């Protein structure tokens, strides 16, 4: 089955065409036939496209709306020289990444009018993300008369117990406005934790305790028992938890009130401060990019060093806390651009956790870059692995299962 996976942002559409079916998904043999991104929709857009076994292609041109972007993507997928399809009708289904599914969507679902209404109801919870996701769906629905499936960033975390998702705020805010922890990056945490269970031969084992660290531009960490999320670091919004490229992660909520007062900030300025000017960038004053910071640190840049140190310290604190939550640990997984590539970050964030059963093998760690690999020592009771994430593949698999009438995982 050929599944088109779409991930629509406010000015971008990421896409992948994936060939998958139940047998190849179980065997891990399903793959992307083509992928790419359209950026800067609304102006002079850039379209990048890469098909299996071909040279990557880049085009620029005015693209004013998502529907035209999807039309252009379909044009490339069926173009004689670079295409991988003869006709767009070869696409069997479309899988959409949806950011927020609130409490209603606990698994991926087939999109119908009722579901669409439910996703629209979650706009209040994700005002920046759900609207472009919905726009992308509406565009694709007009162009492709097949079944469409929604896969949510939040749904994997719907198994969290109340003690993990409730904040110490008046309960009425939860009842009235859904103020609680939801968590994000669910497809990534689910993908790598499932893969970890497969590697350990413990799929379906209710006692398996895994901590997954998704470290990209946004960062989050999840405690997973028996394949189910029991706690995660992002909250009502993706602002909470680990230090990120430009987001602060955990801060004293009183800081927001204080800084808004002393700096005379309005809501949109405070929003920009917390989302765009904080985190690694805010502390270092150099960059939000971990590679650049590690480089600057090696050249003696003090604030780059302290930014990286805060990042690793916070991560270590969460790993240790989640070992407590899980009452022990079988495996820690690193993924995302930083988790998959940044050797010193992995080393620094588990240093000293030997007493909790996590012992890194430094040679293995140094050799693991963008590959699936064990990086713990043979005598480490808790395993440490690097597992590259593949959110699009998971979205394609969910879509394939749902349109085939199989139960969602
Ligand atoms: P996104 O969350 O946007 O998908 P990625 O998962 O691609 O982002 O992660 C981006 C982060 O990964 C950046 O901070 C980047 O510097 C970091 N990264 C990528 N490669 C390396 C590397 N070799 N060493 C250190 N950091 C890296």
Q: Which secondary structure elements does this structure contain, and how are they paired or packed?
A:
Blueprint: E1 2-8, E2 13-19, H1 22-27, E3 31-39, E4 43-51, E5 57-63, H2 66-77, E6 93-98, E7 109-110, H3 113-121, H4 130-143, E8 147-152, H5 162-165, H6 171-177, H7 186-200, E9 209-215, E10 219-225, E11 228-232, H8 253-262, H9 267-276, H10 279-284, H11 290-298, H12 302-326, E12 331-335, H13 336-341, H14 343-350, H15 362-367, E13 373-374, E14 383-386, H16 391-403
Parallel strand pairs: 1-6, 6-8, 9-12, 12-14
Antiparallel strand pairs: 1-2, 2-3, 3-4, 4-5, 7-8, 9-10, 10-11, 13-14
Helix pairs in contact: 2-4, 11-12, 12-14
The chain binds adenosine-5'-diphosphate.
What percent of residues adopt helix (DSSP H or I)? 25-40%
- What is the arithmetic mean of pLDDT? 96
Quaternary: single chain
By secondary-structure content and strand pairing, the structural class works out as alpha/beta
Q: C-alpha Rg, in Å?
A: 21 Å
Describe the largest sheet. 8 strands, mixed
Number of domains: 2
**Main sheet: strand order:** 5-4-3-2-1-6-8-7
Describe what you observe in this structure.
The model has no long low-confidence stretch (mean pLDDT 96). Helices cover 39% and strands 20% of the residues. The protein contains 16 helices and 14 strands. The strands form two sheets. It has an eight-stranded mixed β-sheet with strand order 5-4-3-2-1-6-8-7, with helices on both faces. A six-stranded mixed β-sheet has the order 11-10-9-12-14-13, with helices on both faces. The chain folds into two domains: 2-152, Nucleotidyltransferase, domain 5, CATH 3.30.420; 202-386, Nucleotidyltransferase, domain 5 (2-Layer Sandwich), CATH 3.30.420.40. The chain is globular and about 55 Å long. Helix 2 crosses helix 4 (130-143), helix 11 (290-298) crosses helix 12 (302-326) and helix 12 crosses helix 14. The protein is α/β, with parallel strands linked by helices and 409 residues long. The two termini are 18 Å apart. Adenosine-5'-diphosphate (ADP) binds at residues 216-218, 245, 289-291, 294, 336-338, 341-342.
């Amino acid at each position: 089955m050929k599944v088109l996976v779409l991930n629509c942002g406010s000015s971008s559409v990421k896409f992948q065409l994936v060939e998958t079916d139940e047998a190849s998904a179980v065997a891990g043999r399903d793959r992307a036939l083509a992928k790419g991104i359209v950026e800067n929709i609304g102006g002079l857009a850039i379209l990048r496209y890469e098909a299996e076994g071909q040279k990557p292609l880049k085009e620029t041109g005015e693209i004013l709306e998502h529907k035209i972007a999807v039309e252009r993507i379909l044009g490339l997928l069926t173009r004689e020289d670079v295409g991988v399809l003869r006709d767009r009708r070869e696409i069997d289904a479309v899988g959409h990444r949806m950011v927020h599914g609130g409490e209603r969507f606990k698994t991926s679902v087939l999109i119908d009018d009722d579901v669409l209404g439910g996703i629209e109801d979650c706009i209040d919870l994700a005002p920046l993300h759900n609207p472009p996701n919905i726009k992308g769906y509406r565009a694709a629905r007009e162009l492709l008369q097949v079944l469409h499936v929604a896969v949510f960033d939040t749904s994997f975390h719907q198994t969290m117990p109340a003690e993990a998702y409730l904040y110490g705020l008046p309960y009425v805010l939860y009842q009235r406005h859904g103020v609680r922890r939801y968590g994000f990056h669910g497809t990534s945490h689910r993908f790598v934790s499932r893969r970890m269970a497969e590697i350990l031969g413990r799929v379906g084992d209710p006692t398996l305790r895994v901590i997954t660290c998704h470290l990209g531009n946004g960062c989050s960490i999840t405690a997973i028992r028996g394949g189910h999320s029991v706690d995660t670091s992002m909250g009502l919004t993706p602002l909470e938890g680990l230090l990120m490229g430009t987001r602060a992660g955990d801060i004293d909520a009183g800081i927001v009130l204080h800084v808004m007062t002393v700096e005379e900030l309005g809501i949109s300025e405070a929003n920009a401060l917390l989302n765009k000017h904080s985190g690694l960038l805010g502390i270092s004053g150099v960059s939000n990019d971990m590679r650049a910071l590690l480089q600057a640190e090696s050249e003696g840049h003090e604030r780059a060093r302290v930014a990286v140190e805060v990042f690793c310290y916070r991560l270590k604190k969460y790993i240790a806390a989640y070992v407590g939550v899980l009452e022990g640990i079988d495996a820690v997984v690193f993924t995302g651009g930083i988790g998959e590539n940044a050797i010193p970050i992995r080393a620094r964030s588990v240093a000293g956790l030997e007493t909790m059963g996590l012992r890194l093998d430094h040679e293995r760690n140094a050799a693991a870059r963008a590959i699936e690999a064990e990086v713990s020592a043979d005598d480490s009771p808790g395993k440490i692995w690097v597992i590259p994430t593949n959110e699009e593949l998971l979205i394609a698999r969910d879509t394939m299962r749902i349109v085939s009438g199989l139960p969602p995982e």
